[in-house]
Write a structure and sequence with these properties.
single chain, 404 residues, alpha+beta, Nucleotidyltransferase, domain 5, 3 domains, 6-stranded mixed β-sheet, 5-stranded antiparallel β-sheet, 23% strand, elongated, PolX-like_BBD, protease, Integrase catalytic domain-containing protein
Length: 404
């Protein structure tokens, strides 16, 4: 957000809020609002919940403010040239900085706005969880961010997000596999069991599933008998006996709903949303007693989440190794679907070809919030999406670890 930020704030006292509480000034810098204008002398204030513009400092800098019943007009004192307008909401005047070019020089910037951006990037995981992760330094790549639920997230409201709870004696790390047909369960489970045995140097002793016909079949029973795995079933119509899986399913589905709602992404990408929600939750929900994330407990190191971006946001893929004319576009437009399970790359959807691609050379545009980006896509060929789903496994995603 800041293009430059200095910690030299000795000349600034604490900021006093309307309720007489105080906030500490932590930095002084400059913010580029767009390519057209910027705001300088911006104070970074801890515990400030809103972005504030100082009328007094505007007047000191040669501007005048005309307050009307429904709007405010800011103009230059010499010449009267209008700089920008604001509108009244209840007893406050709000400024839309997309209205006009301006070079303003006095405001306070809220650290909390970055907290909401990271909430969107991290699959809409609850603010209380993110606050705990930040406070206890459980991940890498998340520095000096304030997480406060000072407003409602429209995507979370639409998804009706529910927090996950787990028994404190265990930790839950989740793998997700997608099936084209229920008959594939035995084959997929056998691959998972072999990978788990190789990774953790141990054997699976027991599994529990519901009585769905995808689990109650000859192929999976033959495999379990062959490798010595005990297969237990929960009682019919008793999801409470399979509580951990049921809660995790609920958590992933509610997170995925919020993610799809964020940019109005087509529900045909539900599997990509579930996959990314699972990836984020493995790296964020801390163990109640150990104060470590599932990722750290499983891999022995803190996860690095600095490369996360908002699911569904617009992105630009730069054309390489192509003979382009002088005036041809240098990039193609896509939107983000998640993270590759096979390389350190991003999964993006190409609207021109209707295909999911994996790439690392990409720039992201998160500027639009809920319901503000691409329209729903109704003519997607689902066959390529199903094919890419079959190859996805969130547990196999390779984290983009930066060198310390």
């Amino acid at each position: 957000m800041f293009t430059s930020l200095s910690g030299n704030v000795e000349d600034y006292d604490k900021i006093t809020f309307g309720d007489n509480s105080k906030g500490k000034v932590e930095g002084l810098g400059k913010i580029e609002i767009s390519s057209e204008y910027s705001i300088s002398n911006v104070l970074l204030v801890d515990s400030l919940n809103f972005n504030l513009l100082s009328v007094g400092q505007l007047c000191d800098l040669g501007f005048q403010c005309l307050f009307k019943p429904n709007e405010v007009i800011v103009s230059k004192i010499d010449g009267g040239e209008e700089v920008f307008k604001g509108f009244r909401h209840n007893n406050l005047y709000l400024i839309d900085f997309n209205l006009k070019k301006a070079n303003l020089q006095a405001c306070l910037f809220s650290k909390n706005s970055m907290g909401w951006l990271w909430h969107r990037r991290l699959a809409h995981v609850g603010m209380s969880t993110l606050k705990k992760v930040m406070k206890k330094d459980l991940v890498r790549g998340l520095k000096d961010i304030t997480f406060e639920k000072d407003k409602l997230c429209s995507a979370c409201q639409a998804g009706k997000q529910v927090a996950s709870t787990h028994p404190s004696k265990t930790f839950i790390y989740t793998w997700v596999y997608f099936l084209e047909d229920k008959t594939e369960v035995a084959h997929v489970f056998s691959k998972f069991a072999k990978r788990a045995q190789n990774k953790f140097n141990t054997s699976i002793v027991k599994i529990r599933s519901d009585n769905g016909r995808e689990f109650d079949n000859t192929n999976i029973e033959e495999y379990c008998d062959e490798v010595g795995i005990k297969h237990e079933f929960s009682a019919t119509y008793t999801p409470q006996q399979n509580g951990v899986v049921e809660r995790k399913n609920r958590t992933l589905i509610t997170l995925a709903r919020s993610m799809l709602d964020e940019y109005g992404t087509s529900k045909k990408f539900w599997a990509e949303a579930i996959n990314t929600a699972c990836y984020a939750s493995n790296q964020l929900y801390p163990h109640r007693l150990l104060d470590k994330t599932p990722y750290e407990l499983l891999n022995g190191r803190k996860p690095n989440i600095s490369y996360f971006w908002v699911f569904g946001c617009k992105c630009y893929i730069y054309k390489k190794r192509q003979h382009l004319g002088k005036f041809q576009r240098r990039c193609d437009i896509r939107f983000l679907l998640g993270y590759s399970s096979k390389s350190k790359a991003y999964r993006v959807f190409n609207e021109a070809t209707g295909l999911v691609e994996e790439t690392y050379d990409v720039e992201f545009d998160e500027s639009n919030g809920s319901h503000g980006a691409h329209v729903d896509i109704v003519d997607i060929d689902e066959e390529p999406l199903v094919e890419t789903m079959k190859n996805m496994s969130i547990g196999d995603i390779k984290p983009k670890e930066d060198e310390d």
